[in-house]
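Deliverable D5.2: sample structural annotation.
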Amino acid sequence: MDAQTAYVPKLPRWRHQENALDAMVDHTAFALFMEMRTGKTKTILDEFGEDQLDGVVNQLLVVAPAGVYRTWEIDAQKHLSEDLERKTMIAYWESGPTAAQQADMKMFMRYKGPRILLVNVEALSRVKAARDLCLQFLQQAKTTMVVDESTTIKGVKAARTKFCIQARDFAAKRRILSGLPSPQSPLDLFAQFDFLGKGLLGYNTFEQFQRRYAIMAMKPYGPGGRNIMVVTGYQNLDELKTKVDQHSFRVRLSECYDLPEKLYMRRDITPTPEQKLAYAQMKKFAVAELENAERVTATIVLTQMLRLHQILAGHTMSDDGNIVDIPENKTAEVLDILENVAGKAIIWVAYDADVKKLSAAIEKVYGIDTCARFWGGNRDTREAEEAMFKTLSHCRFMVATAAAGGRGRTWDMADTMIYYSNTFSLEHRMQSEERNQGVGKTGNVAVFDLMTRGTVEEKIVMALRHKKNLSDVITGDSWREWIV
């Protein structure tokens, strides 16, 4: 390619990203099995930039989980070349769009330049309008269709999987992205590769694929003891690996030597209807209280923010002082992240109630003694639980409050940190981030922040990431910037 017309992204690529791009050349269907924080998103955006410049495709359709899909917009702004970013229009699927959002989408669908459409995979399971939008988009111009976190389409009978397979024939290129493509079973690979291309792994139906790679036996099932066929083991896995390798690029975190010490990522959380109602009511109350106050101080503003923050965490305080749980989507998002974590992880929370809730949810999925806790409520046992986390391979997760576990602990066996919620203290944030940076540790760390867009939570996280102490930056005149 001529040097003057070569695609030049804003940020340089890591070596393994260059290798991934080389591996994808001349493949219309390909899988990137790159572990978390090795840069799958940038690799795809750089490929899109090169393909758009060469006229191979002019648009990108990204299907991703709800907590991830809108972060592609931020990454596009960060990684696309300046010229392509200027020309590219980005839109995302919004459930229950307002009139203004509908008008914006119509304008987007009429645009003839480079486009990126972001759709959450959950919508494809239940919303016909989302599926219709994707099909219309695919048929308007040559498109690369990407399924991010592709284990979300591993179920062959799921509506989302069936739709993605239906849509594949309208895409000029197809890509799947995953850190752990088969976290539970090799059979999870079939649907993901079926999206890439029918018969890509040598079999046109799941039943054929299952007979080749699974060992089946009749087993009694249920109270009545009715015999059914179940998977008891796997076979011919070397053969399967050889087939998968022909259509994929694999990189592990341990193989990457040029990554930064910490990689910060966000997961967007959709509030439940109950949270939306409670938040709106509390916000109205908070604004009224602050407007009527004779003198507004940072302490008063932080108190109002605390009430809103607790609702986003999934609980509130009743008039009689009891904690009332509110349905929330954060716990499910934590479990989704953990499904793609190969090693150990620390989950930080701001409130004691969340320690109990999260540890119970994790042990329900991963089993007893897989999750240690460190908080004010287990002072008598937390040292023993910490020892389990540090020494036992099956105890992979630590749920802790930053107030209790954020100081003086060395948990450097964990390469992943998830902030379910933050306290308002910059010291808590900075101290807790150092817990898995032990002496001599050479690996990098992934830091996930869970936040709800357009709320105090997002503003709190952004302030802490920029090392701002909330009590210092909130003044009497600026309270509306934080509450409203």
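Annotation notes: Residues 15-255 form a domain with the Rossmann fold fold (CATH 3.40.50.10810). The mean pLDDT is 90.
The annotation will be released with the project's public dataset once the embargo ends.
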